[in-house]
Write a structure and sequence with these properties.
Blueprint lengths: L4 E6 L4 H12 L4 E7 L4 H11 L3 E4 L2 H10 L7 E4 L1 H9 L5 E4 L7 H9 L3 E4 L2 H18 L2 E4 L2 H8 L3 H4 L12 E8 L17 H4 L9 H9 L1 H13 L7 E5 L5 E7 L4 E5 L5 H9 L13 H4 L13 H12 L1 H19 L8 H11 L8 H22 L1
Parallel strand pairs: 1-2, 1-5, 2-3, 3-4, 5-6, 6-7, 8-9
Antiparallel strand pairs: 8-10, 10-11
Helix pairs in contact: 2-3, 4-5, 5-6, 6-11, 6-15, 10-15, 11-14, 14-15, 15-16, 15-17, 16-17
The structure holds nicotinamide-adenine-dinucleotide and magnesium ion.
The site of nicotinamide-adenine-dinucleotide has 26 residues, from α1, α6 and α10.
Length: 399
């Protein structure tokens, strides 16, 4: 790589954050950590600071800042910053080349957008940001010239299967002009794919978080169990690849070996395959357009066994259908869905609602929200807030 890249990792203590640091450590000549952020795991953040000496570490409150400073060595070179503005500052700073957006949920929107507005190379893991604000997010990237690279394994796979000219126009490439008929978004079906449908309702947080193929944060793990994760990814794909409804399809592929596919006009289908390890898409984005080592071994086809495929069962995964419907109903619907789901999943993880009630909370919010246009950030944030309020209300009714 020509010049050492300065990298900010938003959500450095999380699952994606840790995998990103793993790649950076393998290529310390090419990448230097500029800033890291964390919300709760302050000891973990201190360990990262000791190991990588980033210039800044951002925490949410002055209590956490005091705690972090206690853990840091007296001669630490890392300056501790506090709060939401600091998150934006380390995303947009002139010295920064690359921002890994790996905060989970709506909390990631503002700093990710700050990186987009500043025209950075943005490695997008935080799918909720795009689901909340797709249209204005893509518009902002086009205006600033920010380079969006998808980290989500499916979207990274799709990106890799696109012609180079389309890769250069994330968010605006015309699929038909590139000879593409359809994008095939694959998903494993999560841990409950084969459970008797009547047993779904009372599944516990721990069983929902036991994903058969991937190790991930708890929120996305629950989303995988409901398959709302695939629904959020469907919306994410719509924005990143500028899809029409007939150009986007979900296929269940339980082994998670194929990470998604692109079907061309002439009958060719191009797929990206690999081990289910997020270091592959992260390394792809960090190195792009070069290929760099990720520590992930290549597939051993003699050991793979069968690859199977099936259509999604919308009775088992009602949230997936809901997300697909929201995708084509407009921005307010997907913003509301994302907000309602974040509340419902947090309440489920805290064992205040049942697994089977997550979809009910989302559905209820969507039926009660007014779907006015959302072309400005303030409108998006207002829908988000209103939806959270209604979702919390619904949780209280269900209790
Ligand atoms: P995680 O829960 O492991 O980590 C989340 C990170 O965000 C942590 O560093 C945490 O400190 C930070 N954070 C949480 N709440 C915050 C708040 N309110 N303000 C600021 N920071 C906050 O999550 P993850 O699995 O690493 O996922 C991160 C994002 O990447 C999510 O949007 C997820 O959908 C997406 N993603 C994850 C995977 C995966 O394999 N883990 C795959 C694809 C996409
Ligand atoms: Mg994914």
């Amino acid at each position: 790589m020509a010049k050492q890249q300065q990298v900010t990792v938003l959500g450095a203590t999380g699952s994606i954050g840790q995998s990103t640091l793993d790649i950076i450590a393998r290529h310390s000549d090419d990448f230097r950590l500029y800033a890291v952020t964390a919300f709760q795991q302050i000891q973990g953040l201190a360990d990262i600071c000791q190991r990588f000496s980033p210039r800044y570490a951002v925490v949410p409150s002055s209590d956490k800042a005091a705690q972090l400073k206690q853990y840091l060595a007296v001669d630490s070179l890392t300056e501790v910053l506090v709060g939401a503005d600091a998150l934006k500052q380390v995303s947009a700073a002139a010295e920064v080349d690359v921002v890994m957006a790996a905060i989970v949920g709506a909390a990631g929107l503002a700093p990710t957008l700050a990186a987009v507005h500043a025209g950075k190379r943005v490695l997008l893991a935080n799918k909720e940001a795009l689901v909340m604000s797709g249209e204005l997010f893509i518009r902002a990237a086009q205006q600033s010239g920010a380079e969006l690279l998808p980290v989500d394994s499916e979207h990274n796979a799709i990106f890799q299967c696109l012609p180079e000219t389309a890769q250069k126009q994330v968010g605006s490439a015309d699929l038909t002009e590139h000879g593409i008929d359809k994008i095939l978004l694959t998903g494993s079906g999560g841990p409950f794919r084969q459970l008797p449908i009547n047993d779904l309702y009372h599944q516990t947080p721990d069983s929902a978080c036991k994903h058969p193929n991937w190790s991930m944060g708890r929120k996305i793990s629950v989303d995988s169990a409901t398959m709302l994760n695939k629904g959020l990814e469907y919306i994410e794909a719509r924005w990143l690849f500028n899809c029409q409804q007939q150009q986007l399809e979900v296929i269940v592929h339980p082994q998670s070996v194929i990470h998604s596919m692109v079907q061309y006009r002439d009958g060719s289908v191009i797929a990206q395959l690999g081990e289910p390890d997020m270091r592959t898409p992260i390394a792809h984005c960090l190195g792009y357009p070069e290929r760099i080592r990720s520590g992930v071994k290549g597939l051993d086809f003699s050991q793979l066994g069968q690859l199977t495929f099936e259509a999604p069962d919308f009775q088992r995964y009602p949230s997936l259908q809901l997300a697909i419907d929201c995708c084509w109903a407009g921005q307010a619907a997907t913003t509301a869905l994302n907000a309602a789901n974040e509340v419902a999943v947090a309440e489920f993880l805290a064992e205040r609602i049942a697994f089977g009630q997550i979809a009910n909370v989302c559905d209820h919010v969507l039926q009660h929200i007014s779907l006015h246009p959302c072309t400005e950030l303030e409108q998006v944030l207002a829908v988000d807030e209103d939806s959270r309020r209604r979702a919390n209300q619904r949780v209280r009714e269900l209790a």
